[in-house]
Specification:
By secondary structure, the chain is mainly β. It contains one helix and 15 strands; from the N terminus they run βββαββββββββββββ. The chain has one domain: Trefoil (Acidic Fibroblast Growth Factor, subunit A) (Trefoil), CATH 2.80.10.
Length: 196
């Protein structure tokens, strides 16, 4: 990846190679660039336009490996409430508004609370918990949503480039939602079903 052309999808500024993380970093946005390499700004614009055309609205979000829904634990409306997987029950704490924020990224908002899907503390570490938090526009609240095989998607945090992941491939209700380096597992693939 080092030496390849990289520009930040948020601000268009140059990405700086960070060897210890194997990623490019944008100092303007204080965020790591996603794994996708753009050959030219024109291609970047095309990719972003397609993403925006495919994804906008309110969704149920299901883990591919378990069939369980992305859920705010206990239907809490509080900052810091943990994200889990749970059997779908139709509650608004299992419904998510996916809204473009520019540069090919999206914010993912819990319908019941209006709070954003957030990597706790802005962590870039494997295993960091996913919570809901009042939206503030940080890279830990912006997500790239990319199609993978079988009509599923991977959901990558802007600040870390890591994937939304069900910890330890749990299939149980209450399985923790974390971020983890993308490895292609079903616990990192998500089915999006539009409901509004």
């Amino acid at each position: 990846m080092a030496g390849q052309f990289r520009n930040c999808p948020n601000c268009g500024g140059p990405g700086e190679w960070v060897p210890q993380y194997g990623k490019h970093f944008c100092r303007r946005c204080n965020a790591y660039l996603p794994d996708m390499v753009y050959a030219a700004p024109v291609m970047q614009a095309v990719v972003h336009a397609v993403a925006h055309a495919l994804i906008a609205g309110t969704y149920r979000v299901y883990a591919s490996h378990s069939g369980k829904a992305l859920d705010v634990e206990g239907a809490s409306a509080a900052d810091g409430a943990k994200l889990i997987q749970w059997t779908y029950n139709g509650g608004p704490n299992q419904h998510w508004r996916i809204e473009p924020v520019g540069g090919g990224f999206f914010r993912i908002i819990a319908s019941h609370s209006g709070k954003a899907l957030d990597v706790e503390g802005g962590s870039i570490a494997d295993g960091a918990r996913l919570i809901q938090w009042t939206y503030h526009g940080g890279g830990n609240q912006h997500w790239r949503i990319e199609p993978v095989a079988g009509g599923h998607h991977r959901i990558l945090a802007s600040n870390s480039g890591k994937a939304l992941d069900v910890a330890e491939q749990s299939r149980a209700d209450g399985g923790r939602i974390i971020q983890w380096t993308y490895n292609g597992g079903g616990n990192q693939h998500w089915r999006l079903e539009r409901i509004g």
